[in-house]
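Late entry, evening session. Most of the bench is empty. Finally got around to the prediction I had been postponing all week. Sequence below, unchanged from the version circulated by S.P.
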Amino acid sequence: MGHTPEHVSILQWAGVAVLAAAAVIWVMVLARLLRRGRPGTAVGTGARPLGALPRQRENGPHRESVRLTPAEEAAFAVLVRRLGDEH
């Protein structure tokens, strides 16, 4: 870098340096955030759950079932046939 232009003040050079440093920090933070969202990449000490989101269940909800009467089964079969005929 030898000689600096005479029409550029020290404050302008300081502004350029601050903007360059901010850009570098922004790129580093952005890269870290993008890596954190990608599965299989470890960032920091380990995955921590987000406090604002509820914990996910390991398995789904319990299945529920209801016994149908013969009349209900017949009505359901008619409904299925009618819906199948429309296509």
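Two things to note before I forget:
The chain has two helices and no strands.
Helices lie at 10-37, 70-85.
Will write this up properly tomorrow.
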